[in-house]
Amino acid sequence: MAFRTFGWIQNPSDFTKLKKTVQVFDPQSKQYEELDNHIINNVIYFDRDKKRLQDELDNKVSEFTYSDLVGTSRNKEGKSPKKRKDAIANSLLQITILPQSAKTKGKFYTDNWTADGFLRWAVSLNFVAYNREKDLFKITELGEKLSQTNDGSAEEMEVLQEAMLSYPPATRVLSLLATSKRPLTKFAIGNNLGFVGEKGFTSYDEDLMIDWLKSATTKKEYKKIKSDVEGTSDKYARMIAGWLVKLNFVKKHTNKYKLGNGKTITGFQTYSITGSGLHAIKKANGSSKNSTKSKYVLWEFLAIAGKQDSEQTRDFIRTRRAKIILGLNHHHTIPALIDFLSHEGIEVDESLLNSEIKKLISFGLRIKQNGNSIVLQDDVTGINIPNQTFTPAEADLNSEKIKNHYRKITNLPEKYIELLDIAFDHRRHQDFEIVTAGLFKDCYGLSSIHLGGQNKPDGVVFNNKFGIILDTKAYEKGYGMHIGQIDEMCRYIDDNKKRDIVRQPNEWWKNFGDNIPKDQFYYLWISGKFLPRFNEQLKQTHYRTSINGGGLEVSQLLLGANAAMKGKLDVNTLPKHMNNQVIKLVHQ
Predict the structure, then answer these.
(1) Phi-psi region of 151 (alpha: psi -120 to 50; beta: other; left: phi over 0)
(2) pLDDT tens digits, 122-152
(3) I want to staple 25 with a disulfide (CB 3.0 to 4.6 A). Which of 139, 216, 288, 363 is the partner?
(4) Residue 412: other Cβ atoms inside 10 A
């Protein structure tokens, strides 16, 4: 049995290609006919693939395997290609979804990754049904409806709109825009979209990103921040908003930001809901559960990855969330829902359940909670849970236990509790830098600028009394001593002391406030865990620069943030902790 992921799409945006994808499953469609009559024979490379696919379409087969549809990445020797352009065509969707350069370059097929994206999109909008047991795909009634509409017709638009209003992440985006008094960036939307606080659903702070864009010192850096730097949820937000623009539910706006020197730059795009979109979301939500537009949710929508990328963990989480949704149909208090889940073999406490409820809301389900009372306001269709027991990886269970502990003892948003995972994953160093900078701004109440890039620290944190040079280090087993990184920090400290534009033309120190006393600058490393040798790094840094600083483990970073939010930690006392040691802000 195959366990795939649907519901979350990062790249496909062309509805014409989506329709062609759906038509591959419809023997009555023009696309099916063209595949059968000449495309397979002309474009599929290997004879064995050509014969198999040709036989299927000659026999009007309308249910296909994943391999038939998506294919593989292989070159003419049948091996994995060193370059994408060397891959040959070996599947139905590869030869259906043509690249923009097809006519100019004569390449009439796409890659398997793009084919997979369009298949996911078709399944997620309920145009194509998935048989998990057989790993087969076939067209749905709604898919047939789309396939048979005339291209560019009002009927085609109506079917696409209807499908989008059943897709929870799309209705979540519409609802966020409908209740906002101003147009929203992808960051403002992404911060409230998906399973917030999990790998695969990271969002960057909007103000932080705008400040970073304004601080760019080269065109290359500006272009990279504007186009390439975004959290995964931000990317989903951008893609979904783009679909909604094409469906006339949302309008896109271009923004200008003023810089300190009086110049302006083009900022991040924003989105607002149209009259048509507002009418559609109100109608879809209905006045009662019986009159609402049903939400289409597959089990495969409900998680992307576990902490260790364990499929068992991922599928356990999917099952837990699916059972919560099903349980909400009959159980309308938190204690009753916890008891139901226990009888189903899913053990949760109130803290974990509340966390899951919040994530299902940001996924796109309307769940109303008032104290212990809880009501699912949507009619949900499509959930089919595998008849199988999934055992989460031990590391994931431990991680969940630790995060749940912090949910209980702090009032921190879930996106910051995720730092307990991010801080130990070197592949997520950018997430670590940006989310940490956001925490200092949102929870400590300090000014915080993410910098990054060549010859700059990760960020600066400050108020009018002190400034901190920030460096984050994500290491799986903890951070020890690294001579090169001592040199790096010493260089940043000297840059800030001398402020010599010949020595450092990018002038990153200008991001600090103007009124900070010269003797009130500090350095700070942040990591998931510091190894014993790290103490030597602190001593050497202080010895070489005569500046004080320290190291802060992510657990203390979070506890300090919670204390600052509750008024139990005065942020102005942070310099007193800078004694060239690993810092304890809160004693448990």
Answers:
(1) beta
(2) 999 999 999 999 999 999 999 999 999 999 9
(3) 139
(4) 21
Report helix, strand and coil shares of the chain as percent, to nearest 5.
50, 10, 40
Largest Cα separation within the chain, whole Å, is: 81
Positions marked active-site: 458, 471, 473
Which residue is associated with the tokens 């931000």? 234
CA–CA gap between residue 12 and residue 110 (Å, rounded): 12
H/E stretch holding 461: strand 459-462
Residues 6+ apart with CB under 8 A from 450: 208, 209, 211, 212, 433, 434, 437, 458, 459
| Contact status, residue 308 vs residue 393, Cβ threshold 8 Å | yes
| b/e per residue 329-362 (b: at least 16 CB within 10 A) | eebeebeebbebbeeeebebeeebbebbbbbbbb
Residues 464 and 515: beta-carbon distance below 8 Å: yes
Enter the tokens of residue 55.
């036989």
pLDDT tens string 475-508: 999 999 999 999 999 999 999 999 999 999 999 9
Determine contact, residues 406/320, Cβ cutoff 8 Å.
no
**What length is written for the chain?**
588
